[in-house]
Write a structure and sequence with these properties.
- This protein has helices at 10-28, 33-40, 44-56, 75-81, 130-148, 185-190, 202-213, 273-276, 278-287, 294-303, 307-331, 346-358, 363-366, 380-394, 404-408, and strands at residues 30-32, 60-62, 87-90, 96-103, 106-113, 118-125, 155-162, 165-166, 172-175, 180-183, 197-201, 222-227, 231-237, 240-241, 335-340, 370-373.
- It has 425 residues and is an alpha/beta fold.
- It has 3 domains: 10-93 and 400-419, Arc Repressor Mutant, subunit A (Orthogonal Bundle), CATH 1.10.10; 95-207 and 380-394, ATPase, nucleotide binding domain (Nucleotidyltransferase, domain 5), CATH 3.30.420.40; 217-375, Nucleotidyltransferase, domain 5 (2-Layer Sandwich).
- The strands form 4 sheets. It has a 5-stranded mixed beta sheet. A 5-stranded mixed beta sheet has the order 14-13-12-15-16, sandwiched between helices.
- Strand 12 (222-227) and strand 13 form a beta hairpin.
- The longest helix has 25 residues, at 307-331.
- It binds zinc ion.
- Zinc ion binds at residues 254, 264, 266, 268, 271, 273.
Length: 425
């Protein structure tokens, strides 16, 4: 209809272009203007303008001659102009991002460069109530910064992952394993930090980390299942994290897998979490006369071939598979990522999950949905905090999907990129 054309918001376009450039440089490490044009698909003048702004803001600097990116420099390109092109990189000195994971009794922190390269990690005990958790978090950040010889002013943004229902305004509406209700966590942190602070559900944060740094870097459609004290789920579709109307989408842990089954921390019966969480695995083993500390202990006994442990893990895997089979039919994800401490027992769950995913009627038309284990280990959630911090500073990480050649660090695919004018300002 005439007069009803979509208007493009120039500020949004600028933010989106900046995000593309930032994430392109983050992936390859070092790139010339021409390579950035080829990688991002932006026109040379736009790349010049965005680079100018990123350099003025102190986020990007000219790389030293001996700094190498993921992709080696191309001698052919330099040969044509008689001098090597100016190469750019994110400025590691531009400040720090801090990511945190709050768990019952524990805070874990990671500090990274603005590009997400880990510099230091810290873990310590935390009080059970919000006051205790917050003061442990503040003390932990100070300890981390002191290790790095950095001041609080070096922190550019802070992201926190919390196990529970977190509203879009960073309020913890309900944290069953923390015992928290209606805690305005973001507002309270913002009172002591003048930089952006983001608080989100721990599993959603972990999904962003997988997309940026982990198992889902080249995957636009995936479902993440994370296990610690509880079981969390996150849905990432078409390059975006699905949050739902209230911000609570993805609560796979409370999907019913057994009518009238085991009692769950949420008060309901038969939830997936009541079979698969760390304490649920411990409880099921204890009832069978096997005492183990956590997923790690269960994994050690499973590796030694202990039949009771293998049977309990296989049963938990079958229930996870039952829940995921419906999710796969509904959403058609490319892969399922198993993350968090749950990764310890993933090898003993995966066969049952794969059996369940092969069973649905549609599987034979759709092809298999892969089950992969997160490479981020115990830092999946803190790195998720870093991903949240990065997201608030430079916009959606999904603004740019790295080409396969960039992920593989392969040379040659972008050949000829430096034919474009080198104008970095
Ligand atoms: Zn439940």
């Amino acid at each position: 209809m005439a007069g009803n054309r979509t208007k493009v918001n120039p500020a949004l376009v600028r933010r989106w272009n900046t995000a593309r450039m930032f994430h392109a440089l983050r992936e390859v490490g070092v790139a010339s203007h021409g390579e950035l044009v080829a990688m991002t698909g932006l026109d040379p003048a736009t790349v010049t303008a965005v680079l100018h702004q990123l350099r003025a803001d102190g986020w990007v600097r000219v790389a030293d001659r001996d700094e190498a990116g993921a992709r080696p420099p191309q001698p052919g390109a330099a040969g044509r102009t008689g001098r090597p092109p100016v190469r750019l990189t994110l400025d590691e000195g531009a400040g720090l991002l801090v990511g945190a994971r709050l768990e019952p009794g524990t805070v874990r922190l990671v500090a990274t460069t603005i590009g997400g390269r880990p510099r230091a990690a810290w873990q310590g005990p935390a009080g059970a109530d919000p006051d205790g958790a917050l003061s442990a978090l503040e003390d932990g950040v100070d300890a981390l910064l002191s290790d790095l010889g950095a001041a609080r002013s070096a922190v550019r943004a802070l992201g926190v992952g919390v196990p529970g229902l977190v509203a879009r305004d960073g309020r913890v509406v309900f944290g069953p394993n923390l015992g928290w209700r209606d805690v305005p966590l973001r507002t309270r942190l913002a009172a002591t930090w003048s930089v952006p602070v983001v608080v989100d559900n721990d599993t959603k944060a972990a999904a962003l980390a997988e997309r940026l740094f982990g198992a889902a870097r080249e995957v636009r459609d995936f479902v993440l299942v994370a296990g610690h004290s509880g079981i969390g789920g996150a849905v990432h579709l078409d390059g975006r994290l699905v949050r739902g109307a209230g911000g609570f989408a993805g609560e796979l842990g409370h999907v019913t897998v057994e009518e009238g089954g085991r009692l769950c921390g949420c008060g309901d019966r038969g939830c997936l979490e009541a079979y698969l969480s760390e304490r649920a695995i411990e409880a099921q083993l204890r009832e069978r006369g096997v005492a183990v500390p956590g997923y790690e202990g269960a994994a050690a006994l499973a590796a030694a071939g202990e039949a009771t442990v293998l049977a309990v893990l296989d049963g938990a895997g079958a229930r996870l598979g039952r829940a995921l089979a419906d999710v796969v039919d509904l959403l058609d994800p490319e892969c399922i990522v198993l993350a968090g401490s749950l990764a310890h027992v993933a090898p003993y769950l995966t066969p049952a999950v794969e059996r369940a995913l092969a069973a649905p009627k549609l599987a034979r038309y759709r092809g298999p949905c892969r089950v992969v284990v997160s490479p981020l280990g115990p830092d999946a959630v803190p790195m998720g905090g870093v991903a949240l911090a990065m997201d608030v500073l430079v916009a959606a990480p999904d603004a740019w999907t790295p080409p396969a050649a960039v992920l593989a660090g392969a040379a040659g695919v972008l050949a000829g990129a430096d034919d474009a004018t080198d104008a970095t300002g």
